[in-house]
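tool_log.txt
---
The assistant was asked to compare two proteins side by side. It first ran the structure predictor on the initial sequence, then on the second. Raw inputs and outputs are pasted verbatim so the downstream comparison step can read them without reformatting.
(1)
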Amino acid sequence: MEAYCKVLIVEDEMLVRQGIRFLLDWEKEGFRIVGEASNGKEALELVEQHQPNIILTDIVMPIMDGEELVRIVKGLHPEIEIIVLSSFGEFDYVRSTFQSGVADYMLKPKLDAASLLAVLKKTRERLPIEHHREWPDDRQHSLDYILDRLISGYSIDYEAAPFQSELPYSAYMLLVVESDDASAAAKRNEDWMEALLKAEVQRSNKPIAIRRLATLDGHIRFLLNMDASNCDEVVLLAKELLESAVNTSQSLCAAISRRFDRIGQLHEAYSGDILNMLNHRFFLPDRRLLLADHVSEPQTASATFDLEAYSNELNRQDFHPALHRLDSYVRSMPGRLDKDMFEFKSFLGHSMFNMIVALLHFHYEANALDQSKYEYLRSIHEAKHIGEVMPLLESFMNEVMSCVDRSKTGTSGIQKILHYIDEHISEPLTLTEVAKQFHFNPSYLSNYFAVHNREGFNEYVNRVRIEKACKLLKGSMELSISEISSLVGYSDHSYFTKVFRKQMGISPSHYRKI
């Protein structure tokens, strides 16, 4: 009979999950966390796998929310008790979960160790009589609990002697496996991986102890304990695992830390060696086995991106050279170990964003591209390796070149009109005068402007003038407000003040002071 009351945590925010995990000394209080899920769909799979006694779940989550999770779990497993976590504004959802039979609910902003423990113990009493047992109140920490605390960077007092039989050797290495398949099937393969590794150790009769640690953010983690002379065997084990994965049509990547001599160094091995290698893996899409001793930053500096030249090209409307510069830099990324994945993704997103801003500033017809920019940024953020970024950039470049080429073939007449207005904004501009410049009659220009621009003629002229006035008010303190009024095309100071107040909500003098 199991000694602990099994708890499953369901929360979409990783930091909140981690906070809950370390809010209590779970095993000392008679509980054990048997799994974590980031949404209801993942939780349902873990329910079948681990059969928890209690589920601690958030309400608002992607894919499947807590409300639906409660309804399904109570329908399939009425014996499982559920505690709902919610924010202040979610009580309507909480009310519906009570109708499905939840045991209790807690407000996340007020979550603390004492309150959580009280609710857990109260909920444990609701379990069916066949689940009741003598829950341990004060027993020695299990090895799993200690390793979970250590790899997460928390300090904990422990004695190594009781675990000598489970980790009998002098050296340690950390093996972390990451799947390119984020599906539930990949998560279920944790058991298969552990069984394969242990079977291979038994077949080869090598003195290696294998301990599977808690999976975190898709990282399936194994602690391997061996004599220092057998470290090379860990690499062979990883290769065997990857080869077996290929034979079963799985796409896996494995990372192995440097050897360390104390389990107290577990966090350093994971957060230093492993995460650094998996970060580099973004630029090494074809590398399936990463070794900490072999993945290191090059001694010579690689080519850098000339951001100043890129900005100048955008300002000169030299979009083709700017795109070529960006494309060449991204194509130099595979195999580079001097770049951080997150910094690179941020750089690329900003570069694409700045190009869209330049297109709009110079009045190219880039509204469709502007609307799709967040989809590009999201896809870049989610890309697992540089190979997934290449087609995204190519698609973006094609859209940019299409915008530019349309204007050159004369299909973007509105751009020429807007550019003329910008160049002559300090002059007395009227619809009639601008129409004469482009050989239109005023009525046709008014309709044309309304169809091809988001603002009417007068609205656009006033907005551009006020934007220029704002820059002068902040950047040219030696100019009086009356002088600024004339510089942006308003001969009537009082009318300028009226238009400024309408657009900005305050007077020009007040704007200058803030």
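(2)
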Amino acid sequence: MSQHIVVIGGVALGPKAACRFKRLEPGSKVTMIDQSALISYGGCGIPYYVSGEVSEARELSTTSFHMVRDVEFFKEVKGVDVRTLTRATRIDRENKQVHIQDVTSGVTSVLDYDKLVIATGATPRRLNLPGEDLAGVSSVCNPDDATRIREGISKGEVGKAVIIGAGFIGLEMAEAFADMWGVETSVVEITGQLMPRLVSPALAAMARKHMEENGVEFYFGESVKAIEGEDGRVTRVVTDKRTLEADAVIIAAGVVPISDLARDAGLAVHDRGGVFVDEFMRTSDPDIYAGGDCAIVKHLITGQPVFLPLGSMANRQGRVIGTNLAGGDARFDGVVGSFVVKLFETSLAGTGLSLEAALAAGFDAVSVLLVQLDRAHFYPTKELMTLEMIVEKTTRRVLGVQGFGSSGDAMVGRINAVAAILRHQPTVDDISNLEMAYAPPFASAMDVLNSLANLADNVLLGINRGVGPDGFAELWDQRDNGSCYFLDCREEADAGEYLARNPGQWHNIPQGKLRERLAEVPRDRPVVLVCNTGARSYEAQIILDEQGFGNVVNVQGGMAAIRKYGIDL
């Protein structure tokens, strides 16, 4: 029987659900409404339009075959009726009606529905700061924002920019300003690191160092108190510690799900916003579906509700909803939380839980860090990749993997490999033996993921005991009191410059000669072992353990991690 489906929201999930349903039930009617004039655009591409990597804003709203996804496109190509500049004001569940209002004229009317889809998305979080409405202060929400920001830059109006927030959008916008336009860019973040809770302090410090080398300044642990201006335009940002000059300010403090309509209609909504849905993407009313940035879904590792606003997830959920509107049985079980963000020539990516998030969720977890080449050591275009794995101690279950590496596909490919199986609760042993495609131009014979799991195995067994670069930094800061013996296990040619810079504090015995020079190693204080990546120092640790040395620490990631972290030796 023919149905009338009403979709509230026309950016990502709404169009996907509408078009999927129409393919399955071409005889039914779909009406999609949106309060904006802009629909079906790729919001995640906005920073790349601002940077100039995407040449025209129009490209954010086109298909892969260059058709603009506008009202006419949906009507003629997809068979979906679209009403832009139309706001949904109330959902009447009893009579199955949506009350709407024309944004331009104010005229109100009613749409009857058989099934309803709520795809209202999310809105940038406002900080309610003095000066937040000054010209030059923007959020990054839609192509209009992007066009306004880029026009200001291209006209030469922006020499200094301040980004508030060091999450996905904040970092992407910082790169856009600094890299493509040469704008003096600062990022203010209230927490102590970039990408808080998503990556460890060690990986965050590596990413920060790389961005600072590309001209971005960071101010962590600072709270913005006011945005000030002259003649109605922004000129500076005031934090609790300093004042930063600014011709442009980007507020990138996260987003808030738009769920007022759902709450007012009596649907189950999270205390902090967001519509609860089941695995079929149904709300607490079986005739109403919701998804995308306005929905709360299940985290497949913690089992808890989670808000994860990603365009990729909205599209997948949209297909599920479209299928189920047509009587299907498609499921969206939940998320493991996968991400990647490009940072100049590098990227930061992850899936599952960071150590901080795992501990907060009640897991008895440990993390291990590995630096290894992303392909065969003899292949000329190899690069070092840094990966961190979070493991539950008692069960050996892998809870997450995060990484810092090049902006190519190598690292995100490893993250995606873990993401694909994380919902099935893989153990360290599963990742140790995970089958990866191998050829020297693409991987090493023992892939970096396999090696990472092997490191975790050795740590859980207690035969590789160590610290990451952040732990090494704490030990190195105490070097003047002589509490630790720092032993470089590399060849003398590699260790020489550090011996010269740190006489009496940095020591060198190549791992291959350690057995014959054991007498040089003190037994009355901790020995901190260092090599290039942590492999030879691990072998040295085995030797010293065998010889009865009681307190030996291996630096995971070795000198490669120390350099990336930014420790000055």
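---
observation on (2): Residues 511 and 536 are 6 Å apart (CA to CA). The mean pLDDT is 94.
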